[in-house]
Amino acid sequence: MSTVVEEAAELALELQSPPQPLAGIKVVDFTQVFMGPSCTQLLGDYGADIIKVERPGAGDISRNSFPDPDGQDNPIFLSINRNKRSISVDTRTEDGRAVLHRLMRDADVVVSNFRSGVMERMGFGYEDLKEHNPSIIWASGTGFGPEGPYSHKGGQDAIAQAYSGVMWRRDSDETAPTIYPTTLCDYTTGMHLLQGILLALRTRDLSGVGQKVEVTMYDSMLHMQMQEACMQLNRGYEVNWGAMPLSGVFTTTDGAVCMVGGFTADPLLHISRALGLDEDLTLREEFSTLEHQFENKPALQAIFRERIATNTTAYWTQRLEEEGLLNAPVHTLEQTLADEQTRANNMVVEVDHPTVGTVKMLNAPIRLSATPASIRRSAPRLGEHNAEVLKENGFDDDAIARLVELGVLR
Predict the structure, then answer these.
(1) Are strands 212-216 and 248-251 parallel, antiparallel or unpaired?
(2) Which of 60, 141, 391, 403 could cross-link to 193 by cystine, CB 3.0-4.6 Å?
(3) Angle in degrees, CA 110, 115, 118, rounded to 5
(4) CA 345 → CA 16, 204, 293, 364, distances in Å?
(5) How wide is the angle at C-alpha 107 spanned by C-alphas 104 and 109, nearest 5°?
(6) DSSP for 293-352?
(7) Which three-class secondary structure state does DSSP give residue 63?
(8) Which alpha helices (H) appear in 208-257, and where do they start and end?
């Protein structure tokens, strides 16, 4: 009997569980590539209805980024477009723009990541939309913003790295500036865009008023450097965390280890012990202070490199761990995806796609105990939801057939 009671109690609890945080929020999504889609996918993961607007035939640029056996439904696209519905509308036509205006009349959020001015030229600017929908939240992510000498430029990850100063800092002057190989700027800006939308939704809950939300890759990368910028502005000193004398990446006999010499009273003493050196390097005059360690970093790190090159990664991570020094093996992405910590954090999930089959991808990184992220649908095929979405917005079968005949919907 107790089992039946317990099951009934669990069922009652499930029925009383709160809806997802963004349930009932309608988002019209003009974004493509990575910055915008990473934002709208998380909105969808937490309950929002994301209507993805795509170009007929081509769709989101990510559908065609790499040659792939699954064509437009390739892993690059699938990874950042789940929990969305796709409509393919020709915005070059008056009928196409009219369709989208009708969708946005009762939308909560409109999101784009075009160059500054593109939404306005299509008739979808904030001032245009709020005339018919005063509570709308109009969110835009661009490279540089609507004003200033770079406002005409397109936003792109490597370009933002270069303009923002991030690319210039490296481990030493001998190392050439290089592109960070993961989309650092796109993702950071996408998360700032997400934060702006959530702040605007909260404001609307309190006041009923919508507003414009604008973020730029340029600003996001500057903001990421808030410590470095404050030192530069107030002390004229360039902080470079990647050039610290007791930290670095060092080659082992079977890979590499990352060592961070800090957060202890005397890190160089502990490094000397971990590396099994015959002497305590802190006793050498040229390494006795942090200032001297900076001045003599090449000689100091040559000692580290020579010693660490004599044994395996596992050996050195254990030795460094024993001395209380922060360290990690340098993993490939393949190794990280197979790591037990990835499994423990439930960061890889499987999603069924109607034509591709089972797709493995990353889970949402934000954990909410009562209203967790949910994957309710796979990434859409191009134009998959044309009829469904239009019917929800007042178009009958004849009107939809006419739009298809005119080539507005494809």
Answers:
(1) unpaired
(2) 141
(3) 65
(4) 26, 34, 39, 10
(5) 105
(6) HHHTHHHHHHHHHHHHTTS-HHHHHHHHHHTT-EEEE---HHHHHTSHHHHHTT-EEEEE
(7) helix
(8) 217-224, 226-235
Instruction: For each of the domains in the chain, give its residue range(s) and CATH number, in order of start.
Output: 17-226+345-405 (3.40.50.10540), 256-329 (no CATH)
Please identify which residue in the block is written with the tokens 């859409």. 380
**3-state DSSP assignment of residue 190:** helix
Integer angstrom CA distances of residue 397 from 87, 255, 391, 393: 16, 62, 8, 12
Give the helix/strand (H/E) hosting 6: helix 2-16
Question: Of 383, 368, 364, whose CA–CA distance to 45 is shortest?
Answer: 364
One-letter amino acid for residue 308 of the chain: I
By annotation, the residues acting in catalysis are: 186
Greatest Cα-to-Cα distance within the chain, rounded to the nearest angstrom:
86
- The model's pLDDT over 362-409, given as tens digits with 9 standing for 90+, comes to 999 999 999 999 999 999 999 999 999 999 999 999 999 999 999 999
Of residues 116, 100, 98, 5, the one with CA closest to residue 52: 100
Tokens 């003493």 belong to which residue? 269
The total of other beta-carbon atoms located within 10 Å of residue 387's CB is 17
CA dist., res. 354 & res. 325, Å (int): 49
pLDDT at residue 6 tops 70: no
Beta strand 348-353 with 357-362 is antiparallel
Q: How far apart are CA 301 and CA 296, in angstroms?
A: 9
What's the predicted TM-score (pTM) here?
A: 0.92
Question: Over the stretch 25-82, which tens digit does the pLDDT of each residue have?
Answer: 999 999 999 999 999 999 999 999 999 999 999 999 999 988 999 999 999 999 999 9
In contact, 314 and 251? CB cutoff 8 Å: no
Adjacent-strand bridge partners of 249: 258
